[in-house]
């Protein structure tokens, strides 16, 4: 198991801790925005609410790491009090708590806020959309962050990428899925655009907080659930209730986790404080991707070899139907508002450029690797 404590107290922070002594926004992550500038780092406690269960690996780790990075980079001047889902507010009440100012920041997945704007899922995951690396390209270099800022500002929030699960699995099913008819009436937990796509295919998709998933499977309230991938899914023990584990996950090819900060709190920060928050989130994002990549392979071995989990590939005709439904849903979202249309256009163009490059880089290399050295 990766030692977060060791990482946070050695090596990586040897250079980033210097941010606490730097008062130049240009050297610490780019120009700051808002009313505050200069002034160093002031002593203050920030209240973070999360959508994750307490002490949960991976997703909860990303929230904890972000909080610890903020404290370390500020030399302890900025402290973060972290509340897991249900400790201060419910998982899905985190957005309103931060928007209204009763909490300073949330850590979650922005597709939970689809009820606020149909464009929000673009900043977590789009079915058949971007991988984690492609998302980083969009946010950092192709206009995604600016559009995210514009969307969230309407709700008094400043957003950041602060963790990523990488590619997710298709989910746990109590029975095998062989034809489209097997999806009809299926009660499945799947949030975001993926859930809407499943509804178009005839399933009864619902959104349930992570802490309630196992009980819902056990009681029969749902027949199937997606969650994350082997690392997180093993911890929840879904294999005890649903033996069939489907791949690939069409709905979340790289689920972006987010930190949303109350915009008034953000605007009150100095340039140095903003640089600390910004770079703490970037560091947590980087670490999260590495953790999930390392831990998912180990957990998958345990699930298959020790718990007899049955891996199943989603049939191609079902994936084709889900892809067709995805195009339909995305067209509707793009037409729903001006901001949604601009977000969709930017996302689609950035993805198009990535696909052209990936075809002769990552995809070509991985195909050659499989052919030449097997697994």
From TrEMBL:
Binding, Na(+): 227
Annotated GO biological process: transmembrane transport
Domain of life: Bacteria
MF GO annotations: metal ion binding
Alphabetically ordered keywords of this record: Metal-binding, Signal
Cited PROSITE patterns: PROKAR_LIPOPROTEIN, TAT
GO CC, alphabetical: tripartite ATP-independent periplasmic transporter complex
Residues the record lists as binding substrate: 168, 189, 226, 252
Protein's name in the database: ABC transporter substrate-binding protein
Protein source organism: Parvularcula marina
């Amino acid at each position: 198991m990766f030692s977060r404590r060791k990482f946070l107290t050695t090596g990586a922070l040897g250079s980033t801790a210097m941010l606490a002594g730097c008062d130049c926004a240009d050297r610490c992550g780019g120009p700051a925005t808002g009313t505050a500038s200069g002034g160093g780092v002031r002593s203050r406690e920030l209240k973070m609410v999360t959508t994750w269960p307490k002490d949960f690996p991976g997703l909860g780790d990303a929230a904890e790491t972000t909080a610890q990075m903020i404290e370390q980079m500020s030399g302890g001047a900025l402290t973060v009090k972290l509340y897991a889902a249900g400790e201060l507010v419910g998982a899905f009440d985190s957005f309103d708590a931060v928007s209204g100012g009763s909490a300073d920041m949330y850590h979650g997945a922005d597709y939970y806020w689809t009820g606020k704007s149909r464009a929000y899922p673009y900043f977590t995951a789009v079915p058949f959309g971007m991988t984690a690396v492609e998302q980083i390209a969009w946010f950092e270099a192709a206009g995604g962050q600016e559009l995210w800022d514009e969307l969230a500002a309407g709700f008094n929030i400043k957003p950041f990428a602060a963790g990523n699960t990488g590619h997710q699995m298709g989910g746990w099913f109590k029975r095998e899925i062989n034809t489209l008819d097997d999806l009809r009436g299926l009660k499945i937990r799947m949030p975001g655009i993926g859930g809407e796509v499943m509804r178009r295919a005839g399933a009864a998709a619902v959104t349930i907080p992570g802490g309630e998933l196992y009980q819902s499977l056990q009681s029969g309230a749902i027949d199937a659930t997606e969650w994350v991938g082997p690392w997180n899914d093993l911890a929840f023990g879904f294999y005890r209730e649903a033996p069939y584990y489907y791949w690939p996950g069409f709905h979340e090819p790289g689920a972006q986790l987010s930190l949303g900060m109350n915009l008034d709190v953000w605007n009150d920060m100095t340039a140095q404080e903003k640089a600390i928050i910004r770079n703490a989130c970037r560091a947590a994002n980087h670490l999260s991707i590495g953790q999930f990549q390392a831990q998912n392979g180990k957990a998958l071995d345990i699930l298959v070899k020790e718990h007899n989990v049955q891996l199943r590939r989603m049939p191609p005709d079902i994936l084709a139907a889900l892809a067709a439904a995805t195009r339909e849903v995305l067209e509707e979202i793009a037409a729903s508002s001006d901001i949604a249309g601009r977000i969709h256009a930017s996302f689609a163009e950035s993805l198009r450029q990535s696909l052209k490059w990936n075809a002769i880089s990552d995809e070509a290399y991985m195909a050659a690797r499989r052919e030449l050295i097997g697994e």
